């Protein structure tokens, strides 16, 4: 499937239209930020890893009967997803307490 017009670009992803008005391509970037965007950088292949992890999570959810917008993994950096109205929820997963979580909870990093 071919990327057409850029719909949106955020910190971690770029969304593109496709020839099918109900489907979009989600491209995962290597950009990283910390401290609410104060510190920015690039992590090589971060987008590749995020695409693979996200694909696995969506496939697991679908297998458990939870509907998602996931259609298929296109390549290392892109997945095909259904176009939808987003619910503004952000999920941050970490192996250790860090960043704003430590600040909010008053614990050491």
TrEMBL record:
One of its GO terms (molecular function) is phosphoribosylaminoimidazolesuccinocarboxamide synthase activity. Pathway: Purine metabolism; IMP biosynthesis via de novo pathway; 5-amino-1-(5-phospho-D-ribosyl)imidazole-4-carboxamide from 5-amino-1-(5-phospho-D-ribosyl)imidazole-4-carboxylate: step 1/2. PANTHER family: MULTIFUNCTIONAL PROTEIN ADE2, SI:DKEY-6E2.2. This is phosphoribosylaminoimidazolesuccinocarboxamide synthase. Keywords: ATP-binding, Ligase, Nucleotide-binding, Purine biosynthesis. Residues 6-109 form the SAICAR synthetase/ADE2 N-terminal domain. Its EC number is 6.3.2.6. It comes from marine metagenome.
């Amino acid at each position: 499937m071919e990327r057409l017009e850029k719909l949106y670009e955020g910190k971690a992803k770029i969304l593109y239209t496709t020839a099918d008005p109900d489907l979009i391509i989600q491209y995962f970037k290597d950009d990283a930020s910390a401290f609410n965007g104060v510190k920015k950088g690039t992590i090589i292949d971060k987008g590749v890893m995020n695409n693979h992890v996200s694909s696995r999570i969506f496939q697991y959810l679908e297998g458990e009967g939870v509907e998602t917008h996931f259609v298929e993994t296109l390549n290392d950096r892109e997945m095909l997803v259904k176009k939808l109205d987003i619910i503004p929820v952000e999920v941050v997963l970490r192996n250790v307490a860090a960043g704003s979580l430590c600040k909010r909870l008053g614990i050491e990093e």
